[in-house]
Amino acid sequence: MITAIAIGIAFGWFLERAGLGNARKLAGQFYLTDLTVFKVMFSAIVTAMLGAFWLSRLGVLDLAAVYVPETYLLPQLAGGLLFGAGFVVAGLCPGTSCVAAATGRGDGALVMLGMFAGVLVTGLAFAPLAAFYESSAQGSLTFPQLLRVPYGVVVFGVVAIALSMFAAAERWERRAQ
Amino acid sequence: MSKPYSDPYLAGTGLGLTLLAAFALAGRGLGASGAFTSVAARFVDAPPLHRSDWLLFEIGGVFVGGFLSALAAGRFRLVLERAPRMALAFLGGAVMGLGAVLARGCTSGLALTGGALLSVGSWLFMIAAFAGAYLLAPLVKRAWR
Predict the structure, then answer these.
(1) Does the residue B3 lie in any domain?
(2) A-chain residues near B74 (CB < 8 A)
(3) Which of A88, A143, B50, B115 has its CB surrounded by the most CB atoms within 10 Å?
């Protein structure tokens, strides 16, 4: 419980530091005027991915004991498209809506209310969605398993792609100014 | 006078270390939509709605952390946007709620967490979410003026 609260505090702190409690700043990502969302997300993914990889190599962290989100291809494709559409309309995602609300922003509180209503209604009207929700299940499938290549190779590939996209993002923002 | 936001790579690295700490200390990643489903599960009995006390404590922490960071930087301010923007915030939130239930997670629990763990479904969700947002963005541009 203390761990959960402490991790949450750090999570909220870094989101606010980056400016991700501000819907207009997040929306800038989708109009390509401010690429902060992309930069924060991918530097976080690369940091945690490299940390998990090296800590498990050193025997400090047991990666097998970490829960890997399970793959359901069609529900995650459709859910992702809907989620993205909702994101650009709301300007905040679930985590950042909490930060926005905590920093006094009314739109953050409304995104939270909307999110809760959406989850509640989906739960109430779930029966017709149940079969789709369980479809195309792949278990805890990862890219090293899918591509049959060593974990480190995928890690290296993600780092290479992220670094080249960071460079492209910087060039884009300089040109836009 | 409010301070400028941090460098995005620096904040992102801090966020990544937070995620890594969650892997090491709790054997799981971060979450946000799961806290909403956890509360909804108290009212509605449906298979995708799970209770999770861990996520409720974590999201409580997110409030505290976000508030403290804004306070320290002089950015805490009560701001109410105009009515159309507020209505869209609610509507967008509701659509995200549907999407997050279907996908079994959001930007935190699925994209960040599974992204770092190289989960195929997480990357699929992330790419689909960006695609959905970019496809709709031109149609809702006026709302951001």
Answers:
(1) no
(2) none
(3) A88
Nearest-CA residue of chain B relative to A13?
A: B65
**What residues make up the domain containing B89?**
8-144
How many residues are there in chain B? 145
User: What residues form DSSP beta bridges with B79?
Assistant: A105
Annotated domain spans of chain A: 2-176
Identify whether B2 is part of a domain. Answer: no
Q: Evaluate if residue B70 carries a pLDDT over 80.
A: yes
Q: What is the helix (H) or strand (E) element at residue B94, kind and residue range?
A: helix B83-103
3-state DSSP helix/strand/coil % of chain B, to nearest 5: 70, 0, 30
Q: With 90 as the cut, is the pLDDT of residue A177 above it?
A: no
Percent of chain A whose pLDDT exceeds 90: 98
pLDDT tens by residue, A85-135? 999 999 999 999 999 999 999 999 999 999 999 999 999 999 999 999 999
Is the ipTM of this structure higher than 0.95?
yes
Give the residue from A5, A15, A16, A129 with the most B CB atoms within 10 Å of its CB, the best one to mutate.
A16
Is B58 among the domain residues?
Answer: yes
Q: What are the pLDDT digits (tens) for A20-52?
A: 999 999 999 999 999 999 999 999 999 999 999
Number of structural domains, chain B?
1
Best of A3, A14, A33, A163 to substitute, by most chain B Cβ atoms within 10 angstroms, is A14
At B63, which amino acid appears?
F
- Average pLDDT of chain B, as a whole number: 95
